[in-house]
Amino acid sequence: MAFTSSTRLVNPRLGTYFGIFTAALVALVLMALMLEQLGVADPLLRSLMFSAPLLLYAAIGFNARANEPHDYFASGRRVPAFFNGLVLGVAVLGGAGFLGLTGALFIAGFDALCLSIGWCAGLVFMAVLFAPYVRKFGTYTIPAFLGRRFDSRAVRVLAAAVLCPSILLVLVAETRFAAYAAAWLVGQPEPIMTAVLIALVAAVLAAGGMRSLTWSSVAKAITALLALAVPATIFGLMASNLPLPQMTHGNTLRVLTRMEMLRNLPIVIAPPLAFDLPGVGMEALGKRFVQSFGNVGTLGFVLASLVMAAGVAASPSLLPRSGTTPGVYEARKSLGWAVLVAGVILLTLPAVAVYLRFLVFEQVIGQSADQVPTWMQLLQQAGIAQLEPSTQPISVGRLGFERDAVLFALPIAAGFPQVLVYLALIGALAAALTGLSASLFALAAIVAEDVVRASPVEVASDRARLGRARIALAGMALVAVWLAIAAPADPLQLFLWGVTLSASGCFPILVLSIWWRRTKAWGAMAGMLTGVLVAGAAILLGESGAIALPSALAGALGLPCAMLVTIVLSVMTPARRLNVLEQLGEMRVPGGETVYDREMRLLRLKNRTPS
Amino acid sequence: MIERNERKAYWRHTKVQMLTSLLPFLLAMIILPIYADALNEKRVLGMPLGYFLACHGLMVIGFITVAVFINRQDAIDHWHGAHEDF
After folding, report:
1. Which end is more exposed in chain A, N or C (fewer Cβ atoms within 10 Å of the end residue's Cβ)?
2. What are the tens digits of pLDDT across the range A30-45?
3. Residue A611 has pLDDT above 60, yes or no
4. Is B86 exposed, middle or buried (0-12, 13-18, 19+ CB in 10 A)?
């Protein structure tokens, strides 16, 4: 088994393969457009648009099988920076970004930008603070990283217990978003789609682990980008004659701002700590788009950005992805690509929100009930919009929109062919599946490697190790299905809770364990526990209304508490062992063999029976 | 491969690079949105300046931060002989 990888091992035909995939996807959409014009039945078109991309993802995933732990957990450390960055950029946003953020931007306007800023900043922090060092260490999970950093099995097990809830919350949120998009596309109930999608994802992941996850996620990321770009670009062309909606929605926004003033849309000032982003169900457009701090207060905005950034940067489901690159430099570069990809998406989503809001104000608000355009009637029939019946002209207060449907409401409102609505849906589904797969795989890997460990995993045979990982995957898939069907909460709220727990339980310990050499095992354990317990208590108290801090911002309490406790206990406990410091020194230097791979190589040499 | 006595200098350089990369970005992400309403009087590409800076500006600053960090950190790695050998 080869542990040392280099750039020479990277497959030079990857660009060709994914070029073929992109061509197949474009051909599928064009064919569906032609079939629609030829009068093919709508259910058939929906089935085609749902099943064909899923079959392609599954084929790519099954084709990337893995029979060795190095391939199963780290994709053989052969993923080039661009492809890793592409997957990271889409997985970090997932369904919460594509569906939740677009809707939040449409309804709350400027205030939802706190999430965009947090996502982008999280990737920047990850690139500078964590990714190069996690890559140099080379462990397959974050608890394994912390356990080896402090040379303590207790730290590893505790980290696994502390990090699992945050990954589980994100997993359930992404599953709910994926099932929501799939249910719209196929017309089946969400619980059925939840089971179908998780079964498919789990089967693909069981075949090749991180290898399948990476290559099928590249295909999903391409789909998501294409599906987001096409409707937004067409509308951008219609509105400004330029195919760059990210830069040209300014004129539409100027007209929209004027219409909002004419329609007397109020200027709302929220209390400093408010964090009132739209939830599930019908939400009215309560304030002007560019007016800041109407739903989210000044302090709430800053705290939300910081907590989001910390949670994303230390995300235990995304950070191990750095380990799939051929080296430390490639890991840094992949984060550069990830910021670029996520940045382009995060600039396109406000354009979508502005365009739909413009259409609503231009064609619906102020009209009498019998003059409502056809697309508005379609949105009402589909349950995306709600209009209170009245004989008066339509006012903003009488109109409600479903947050998570805004992304695919734009092609309906713009009068695009039905296939472009389905394209927006498969894009959202692909993004949610990317986030879902990353969370499910990370959770199963932690359970298999760091929790269920009767004997040291590294000594176990490859077969036993992969068998345990696959069983854990099946178990976690069942838990995800059950929780996604049973959990009644808003998926965006679940996502934010997951991020806030990651910011409290993981971020401070990771920062200190890499950047402060005096951090010790007792300090790390106490810090992790404090962070998660304080954040968990703040979420419960915030939800019950006992404290003024909104539950999504619980990390603003948990993070400083965890950092303080870690520092105090590290200073109080005895000096570090020499081998721990030696290992830390090695981790900080990019050159040389990956620490974990070298340990495994030596362990195998030691355990090899002489022939 | 990096010399043992070079490690301390390398890590000091790396820490300075980390701080110079993150602190300006951190300041921008806190300060820009707070003054968005005041800046919205002016327009860029038809967009209110405050909205433009919070939305587009921070994404661009984030990307430039990472790009410069990758370039400078690689230079630091080579300067101290800490870079990877492929």
Report:
1. C
2. 999 999 999 999 999 9
3. no
4. exposed
Q: Do A113 and B52 make contact, defined as CB atoms within 8 angstroms?
A: no
pLDDT computed for residue A65 by the predictor: 93
pLDDT at residue A368 above 90?
Answer: no
Burial code (b: 16+ CB inside 10 Å, e: under 16) for B28-38 equals bbeebbbebbe
Of A128, A248, A327, the CB nearest to B22: A128
Chain A residues inside the 8 Å CB shell of B14: 588
For chain A, the maximum distance between any two Cα atoms, rounded to a whole number of angstroms, is: 91
> pLDDT band at residue A371, thresholds of 50, 70 and 90?
confident
A206 min Cα distance to partner chain B (Å): 32
Phi, psi dihedral angles at A444 (to 5 degrees): -65, -40
| Beta-bridge partner residues of A387 | A399
Of A252, A347, A592, the CB nearest to B59: A347
A170: Cα separation from own chain's centroid: 8
Whether residues B84 and A248 touch (CB distance < 8 A) is answered with no
- Position A461 confidence tier, pLDDT thresholds 50, 70, 90: confident
Does the pTM of the predicted model rise above 0.90? Answer: yes
**β-strand A385-387 against A282-284: which pairing, if any?**
unpaired
Q: Which residues contact A156 (CB under 8 A, 6 or more apart)?
A: A143, A144, A146, A147, A148, A450
Specify whether the CB–CB gap between A452 and A472 falls below 8 A: yes
A2 pLDDT higher than 80:
no
d(CA A287, CA A10): 51
Residue A417 — left, alpha, or beta (φ > 0 → left; ψ -120 to 50 → alpha)? beta
What share of chain A has pLDDT > 70, as a percent?
97
Instruction: Check A590 against B81: CB less than 8 A apart.
Output: no
Question: Is the minimum CB–CB distance between A251 and chain B shorter than 8 Å?
Answer: yes
Could you tell me the pLDDT band of residue A1, with boundaries at 50, 70 and 90? very low
∠ Cα A320 A324 A328 (to 5°)? 90
**Mean pLDDT, to the nearest integer, of A514-537?**
96
Place of tokens 């990472």: B66
Give this complex's ipTM: 0.97
- Please tell me the total number of residues recorded for chain A in this structure: 611
Long-range contacts of A9-12 (CB under 8 A, 24+ apart): A9/A76, A9/A78, A9/A326, A10/A78, A10/A79, A10/A80, A10/A326, A11/A78
Question: Does residue B41 sit at the A interface (CB-CB below 8 Å)?
Answer: no
Contact B70 A116 (CB under 8 A): no
Instruction: Give the H/E segment covering residue B48.
Output: strand B47-48
- Contact criterion met (CB < 8 Å) for B62 and A8: no
Query: CB A346 to CB B59 under 8 A?
Result: yes
Q: Which residue of B has its CA nearest to A589?
A: B82
Query: Which pLDDT score, from 0 to 100, does residue A397 have?
Result: 87
Closest Cα of chain A to B20: distance in Å?
11
- Residue A332 and residue B65: Cα distance in Å, rounded? 12
Residue A456 pLDDT: 56
Name A453's Cβ contacts closer than 8 Å, sequence gap at least 6. none
